[in-house]
Amino acid sequence: MGLFFLDYGAGNVQSLANSLRKLGYEFQWIRTAEDFDKATSLIFPGVGSFGSAVTALESKGLLEPLHKYIASGRPYFGICIGMQVLFESSTESPSVKGLGLIPAKIDLFDNADKTVPHMGWNSIDLLDSADKSDEGLLESSHYYFVHSYRASYDPDGNPVAAHWVHSTTQYGQEVFMASVRKANVFGTQFHPEKSGDAGLRIISAWLSESESARSSAPPTPRIPRPPKPRDGLTKRIVACMDVRSNDEGDLVVTKGDQYDVREKAPAAPGTIQAQAEGAVRNLGKPVALAARYYAAGADELCLMNITSFRHSPLRDQPMLAVVRAAAEEVFVPLTIGGGIKDTVDPDGTKRSALEVAGLYFRAGADKVSIASEAVYAVERMRARPSQDGIGEGDGTSAIETIAHAYGRQAVVVSIDPKRVYVDLSYDGPYRDEVIRGSPGTEDEAKAWWYQCTASGGREVRPLSVVQLARGVEKLGAGEILLNSIDRDGTGKGFDIDLIQLVRKNVRIPMVASSGAGSAAHFVEVFQKTDVEAALAAGIFHRGEVGIGEVKDVLSSAGVNARR
Ligand code: 1PR
C-alpha cells in the first residue's frame, strides 16, 4: 500500500524521485499490473512522446490497469505526457489512442510566431478561484514547461473538455491547458519536479490533500480567455560548469579563456608554450557549485564533461556520480554534455550514444548536449542531398536516436564556432553568411564567417555554423546552445552577430553563450536578439556578478525574468 510511480522506461523520472525524497516521502515503482492494486496514490511523470508512452504501457500490460486504477477513484497525478494520456489522442502519434477521459485532442504548437518546443518558465492563470494556494499553485509563480504539443483551451468549441481545466498558460498567442483537475485526477503540463520551490509546493500539497478536498465543488462555467498581448514566458539564465579532472585526478569545475583551461605560465627560453602551461584552473566542486546556483535562482544548469572525448562512459563513472549528486540538490532542469557518442568500454563492450545518454538520464539529467557528434552527423547528412539543401539524416545519428526515444526536447546541440576572417571582397562558398563589422566597433573594416569545430575547438571542420544549425534542427535537436570560441572567457559580451545569424536560420529555442562580463550583457543579448536563454560561466564562478543581480537588471530593463 502507498505511493507508487509509473515508469515505462524512458526519460528522467529520477527528478521526481529526488523531489519526493527531498519532501520526505517513500514510494515504490509500478512494475507489474498487480502493483496497481497496492497503490493508494499514483504519480505518472510521463516524458518522451505520446505514442512511445502509450505503446510502452500497452506492451507491458499496464495501460488497462492504469485505466482501472483511475476509474477506482484513487488519486492520480499525471505530469506532462502523464497528463496528455488522459486525452483521446495526439497529432504527435495519430495511430495511438489515449485513455480518452478528457474528450479532446492534443495538437502541435504553431511555430509561425514562436520557437517550438515551448521550453522554459511560464506563468499560469487559475480558473474557478484565483487562489489555489492550498493546492500549491500561485499565479505569482513560474513553472517549467517543455513540450511541443498542447491541449488548447476552447470553452466555446469543446465545453466538456474545458470543464476539466484547472489553469491555463499562454505561449505566443496560444492559450492552452496548464493543469487539469476533476475529482481524483490531477494533471500538469508543466514539470513541478523541475519548477524549483514553486513546484515542490504543488507536489507536497497534492500528497497531503484530504479525500474531501479531492471531491471538490463542481467548477464554475468556463469562459473564453483571449490571449494577452504578451505571454508570461521568462528569459532563462543558465549557469554552466565545465568539468574535468585536474592533474591530481579530481573532477573540478574549470574555466578557460577561448577554451584554454590551464593557468598561464610564461614559456622559458627554449621551451614551447605547451610545455610551460600551468595547472588546470580549479574554480570549485561541481555539486557544491550546482547547489549554490540553484539557491541563487538559476533557471537551468549545465554540466559539461569537457574531456569526455577521451573517455567511455564506464571510465566516466565519476562524472555520472557528479550528475547523480547534483540532481539530488537541484530542482531545475539539468543538461549534461560531453561524450554523448558511440563508444567502446575498456573491456571492448560497444555502447551506442543512445545508451550513453540513457545512463545520464537515469542519473538525473533532463537533457543531453551533443557537440562533436552533431558536427559529424551533419557532415554525413550533407552527403545525402535533399531539396531544401540541408541534406537527409539516415536515422542512425545520436541526435535522431536520442530524440526518437526521449523526445526532441531532451536533445541540445552545443555548437563551438570560430570566426574565420576573410577579405571584405570575399566571394567564396560562405559569402551568404559573411558578417561585416559595424562602423565604430573594434570589428570595423573586418569581414568573417563562422566555422564549426569539434573536440572542444581542437578540430576545425568544413562546415559553417548556419549549415550545422539547420542540419541539427532537421535531425531533431530541440535546442541549440551557441558558444563562441572567440568570446569564451573574454568578458566582452555575447557575439550578437553570431546569435542573430543563427536565430534567422532556425525555429528551435536557443541559448546564447560565451563572453558575458556584466549583467548589462544579458540585457543586450535579450534586447538585440530573440534568444530564449543566456548562459555564463566565468563571471558566476568568480563571484563577479550574481544570478540575482542579473535578474534585477533584466527586470529593470523590462525583460521578463523569473524571481
Ligand atoms: O564534443 O559532444 O564531447 O562535447 C564537448 C562539450 O564540451 C562541448 O559542448 C564543448 O563546448 C565543451 N568544451 C570542450 N572543451 C572545452 C574547453 O573549454 N576546453 N568548453 C569546452 C566549452 C564553453 C562554454 C562556456 C561558455 C561561457 N566551454 O561551456 O561555459 O563559453 O563561458 P564564459 O561565460 O566564461 O565566457 P562533445
TrEMBL record:
<comment type="pathway">
    <text>Amino-acid biosynthesis; L-histidine biosynthesis; L-histidine from 5-phospho-alpha-D-ribose 1-diphosphate: step 5/9.</text>
</comment>
<dbReference type="Pfam" id="PF00977">
    <property type="entry name" value="His_biosynth"/>
</dbReference>
<comment type="similarity">
    <text>In the C-terminal section; belongs to the HisA/HisF family.</text>
</comment>
<dbReference type="InterPro" id="IPR010139">
    <property type="entry name" value="Imidazole-glycPsynth_HisH"/>
</dbReference>
<dbReference type="InterPro" id="IPR014640">
    <property type="entry name" value="IGPS_HisHF"/>
</dbReference>
<comment type="similarity">
    <text>Belongs to the HisA/HisF family.</text>
</comment>
<protein>
    <recommendedName>
        <fullName>Imidazole glycerol phosphate synthase hisHF</fullName>
        <ecNumber>3.5.1.2</ecNumber>
    </recommendedName>
</protein>
<dbReference type="InterPro" id="IPR006062">
    <property type="entry name" value="His_biosynth"/>
</dbReference>
<feature type="region of interest" description="Disordered">
    <location>
        <begin position="211"/>
        <end position="232"/>
    </location>
</feature>
<feature type="domain" description="Glutamine amidotransferase">
    <location>
        <begin position="6"/>
        <end position="196"/>
    </location>
</feature>
<keyword id="KW-0028">Amino-acid biosynthesis</keyword>
<dbReference type="InterPro" id="IPR013785">
    <property type="entry name" value="Aldolase_TIM"/>
</dbReference>
<dbReference type="InterPro" id="IPR011060">
    <property type="entry name" value="RibuloseP-bd_barrel"/>
</dbReference>
<dbReference type="InterPro" id="IPR029062">
    <property type="entry name" value="Class_I_gatase-like"/>
</dbReference>
<dbReference type="InterPro" id="IPR004651">
    <property type="entry name" value="HisF"/>
</dbReference>
<dbReference type="InterPro" id="IPR050064">
    <property type="entry name" value="IGPS_HisA/HisF"/>
</dbReference>
<keyword id="KW-0456">Lyase</keyword>
<keyword id="KW-0378">Hydrolase</keyword>
<keyword id="KW-0511">Multifunctional enzyme</keyword>
<dbReference type="InterPro" id="IPR017926">
    <property type="entry name" value="GATASE"/>
</dbReference>
<keyword id="KW-0368">Histidine biosynthesis</keyword>
<keyword id="KW-0315">Glutamine amidotransferase</keyword>
<comment type="function">
    <text>IGPS catalyzes the conversion of PRFAR and glutamine to IGP, AICAR and glutamate. The glutaminase domain produces the ammonia necessary for the cyclase domain to produce IGP and AICAR from PRFAR. The ammonia is channeled to the active site of the cyclase domain.</text>
</comment>
<dbReference type="Pfam" id="PF00117">
    <property type="entry name" value="GATase"/>
</dbReference>
